[in-house]
Design a protein that fits this description.
The chain is mainly alpha-helical. It folds into two domains: 2-41; 64-290, Orthogonal Bundle (MetI-like fold), CATH 1.10.3720. It has twelve helices and two strands. It has a two-stranded antiparallel ribbon with strand order 1-2. Helix 3 (67-100) runs parallel beside helix 6 (150-176). It is globular, with a radius of gyration of 24 Å.
Length: 294
């Protein structure tokens, strides 16, 4: 009886493995097919994006010759870099505090962090707009620092709120899984807190910090809702320009510039992976870090 059952069990297991592999392929196709379509249509030469005319590179040239597109992309990159820096610094410090200085305040702080993650973005956008109008100062046209672009500052603060919570949880999860013995040994050897941080804690949490920075950069780069509410004339990021163009005929230049931004993001991702490999991490550990899982 067992001789008959074993082949049947093995056959069912093989069929299940085949099904799971096919299902995984279908999920990947579902996820990446829209991106592939945009990349393909970025080479479309015609008046409308959705109507294929013929293959060519004219759309890329037109996109980079457009002052509006180039200015919007520059704004997006400045905002993404600035908000990623703000979110990484604030989130890293908060993650360290949650992992290494636990107390009664920890539960409340985590509750606030999760509240930021689950709050609808439209609510954040409206609240930020009202807050900027009420507070004025650096967030209004009458900023006391003329050299400070208040439109960029609005976007930095707005984009970094959600990202800071993400970085906080990633860094906390990283440090929670690491033993404090090395930091305690540094303290026993009379290393100052600052020296322990830069020579022990920071190298240990660096993968999580880089993952949080990359996620923050990506979140900011495609943020539409908050950007639409808080941006001002002269500081309009690329997603808002694309969103506004849907009310008229979308040009192939939109796909071309989006493809260029995709290549830029992949390049940054590759640089981060290269740095992580230089720190001695395996390929599997690098993939885990870049997905924000550790």
């Amino acid at each position: 009886m067992s001789v008959v059952t074993a082949p049947r069990t093995r056959t069912r297991r093989d069929l299940l493995n085949v099904f799971l592999r096919v299902w995984a392929v279908l999920v990947y196709v579902f996820l990446f097919l829209p991106i592939a379509v945009i990349v393909a249509y970025s080479f479309n030469v015609g008046r409308a994006l959705i109507v294929w005319d013929h293959f060519g590179f004219e759309s890329f040239q037109a996109a980079f010759d457009s002052d509006t597109s180039v200015s919007a992309v520059q704004t997006s990159l400045i905002v993404a870099a600035g908000s990623a820096l703000i979110a990484t610094v604030l989130g890293s410090l908060a993650g360290i505090a949650l992992a290494r200085r636990k107390g009664r305040w920890t539960i409340g702080f985590l509750a606030f962090a999760f509240l930021i993650l689950v709050t609808p973005e439209i609510v954040d956008a409206i609240a930020l707009l009202l807050w900027y109008v009420q507070i004025g100062l650096f967030f209004g046209p009458d900023s006391p620092v003329p050299a400070l672009d208040y439109g960029i500052l609005r976007l930095w603060v707005g984009h970094s709120l959600f990202s800071a919570a993400v970085v906080t949880l990633i860094v906390r999860a990283r440090l929670e899984g690491l033993d404090e013995s090395l930091e305690e040994a540094g303290a026993d050897l009379y290393a100052t807190p600052i020296r322990r941080f830069f020579q022990i804690t920071l190298p240990l949490m660096l993968p999580a910090v880089l993952a949080g920075a990359m996620l923050s950069f990506s979140f900011s780069l495609d943020n539409v809702i908050i950007s639409s509410f808080v941006n001002v004339a002269g500081s309009t990021p690329w997603p808002v320009v694309v969103f506004s163009s849907i009310h008229s005929t979308m040009r192939p230049q939109v796909a071309s510039m989006s493809t260029a931004l995709l290549l830029l993001t992949l390049t940054a991702l590759g640089l981060v992976a290269f740095v992580l490999r230089k720190t001695g991490q395996s390929t599997e550990e690098v993939a885990t870090t870049l997905t924000g899982a550790g």
